[in-house]
Fold this protein.
Amino acid sequence: MSKKIEDADLLTRNSYTAADITVLEGLEPVRKRPGMYIGGVDSHGYHHLLWEIVDNAVDESIGGHAKTIRVELSKDHRLAQVEDDGRGIPIDPHPKDPTRSALEIILTTLHAGGKFGGGSYQNAGGLHGVGSSVVNALSSELVATVRRDGLEVQQRYRQGVPTGPMETLRTEVRGSGTTIAFRPDEEIFGVKLHFDAEQIRDRLEAKSFLNKGLRIIFKDEATGERIVYQHQEGLTGLLAKVVEERGKPSVHTPFALSAEREQSGLVLEAALQWTEATEEHIVSYVNGIPTAGGGTHESGLKAGVVKAVRNFIEVHKLLPKGPNPSAEDVREGLVAVVSVSIAEPQFQGQTKDRLNNPEITAEIDAALRVALERWLTANPSIAEGIVNRITLAARAREASRAAVATVTRKTAVSHRLNLPGKLADCSSNDPTESELFLVEGDSAGGSAKQGRDRRTQAILALRGKVLNAEQASSEKVMQNKELQDIIQALGAGSGLHIDLTKLRYHRIFLLMDADSDGHHITTLLLTFFFRHLRKVIEGGYLYLAVPPLYRVDVGGKTYWANDDRHRDRLLAQHKGKPEVTRFKGLGEMMPAQLKETTLDPKKRRALRVQITDGPATDKLLGELMGRDAAPRFRFVMEGSADAEELDV
């Protein structure tokens, strides 16, 4: 027997040969694994294709070669065109492959471009060098038109492969530039995705702030809209826009800094203001590319701000009575925009959402610290207001710490002290296995309490619709009983001072009715968590429970349907006379049913809440949940065509 096993093992090993190794040539790897290059095939990845082409055009502007960029969307918002008046992509034969033009090599070869040698672009955003070729690979069609050397030439591609040779359209052409028109491939992205005009407008406007004098023209063929973006005020104008969008007034005029380090080639621009918000908000860019994931440039800005303020307080002997301000206290309410240009940025991943250059932190820290401290000294009235703002933040933090000090979780004697009266706690003292279900109403809370696993599952019933944290001040949020019950039950504090090591439950579920009221309450709670318990979301602790809307009994078996479509699919799949029950609320479900469908970890369905784009989420919540009804009305009207049904 052992001899047969050895022979089989040898046969298995010998069957794994060089012939089993798959070699993907050209742009095949991009189509095989698009997520490796654009982060995913969702709306974010779809728009990332456009950003790659726009960033290439902006790089021409940064190098002083382009003054105008035009971006156009087709009527169906599925084809985009980007035109610049830069130098034009080279069209002469490439020295290493004379049979092909440089244009074709750039658009069909990974890691081919003008940003590797260091001569053509000083500070470019697309240093990974795969942007144009990736866009070409993931497009069902791409047309590249180049004006250069008195010629206008064009070449067409399908899924990254040329459909023919480069053609000359005109001769004796004045000027130069590049036009790229492309349609993202539905085989990759599906048929539902399209370009979002509003998102593109916001991105292009930000580009115009970051590049003084650059003229960007946006045209939407669906609406006939044509907008020209050109801003000479730079980052201070962008800062004013960000502060206005966040809806929290500033407490002083902005501070702005522009500096250049000759030795390293770093070019730094920053603008900042303290506002009445309870959290900090930093918008950052590297070579004109937004870095939603932050990075070393944001770390340098944060460190410089804290050191400058602390030095100013110490030198002028303004140390407040009470708790010493922490770094979080200093930055509370801070809104800042920072833009850096560097020769060789090291990004985390091809999507370039986080800067990793370690040397940048110290350089920005030093430049900002000196300039900000001088500005504070030169503006004593502004400095006094900022110090008072920081002092209040420190006192609020201390008060919050004291309030949760006795709810640190979880000793056998004291872990139930000072917990909300409506909390039916679990018996486990281990946060990693403990779960908290936030349930709508006493009726649903009763069913959940009876159906839960008392050892690991806690239930907190909430009364009605909770406070809208987007419209309420921090003081009102702190005074609201329902929201304070949540903070108290979690035991980790709130805002900037939250301490996740004290979190009493590592899985927190929002369990609401599967109807419009339940969705509204869920949205209110998501807004509260985003504004005051954001670290809970970022830590991966928050989930949406998905209770069924229908019970379908057919053929002697019971099925659970999440929505109308799911119900109809079940009815079509199973023969017999069905009996359909629609749950008006969780309170109508028997405890055993609620356990089977929603509470039991082996059978339940839940969605983890994630923040993929912080600024976009911040803006969306402001529009949907803020005081101004106009953005909500516009959102509803624009999305009405996509609403197939309403649950009323």
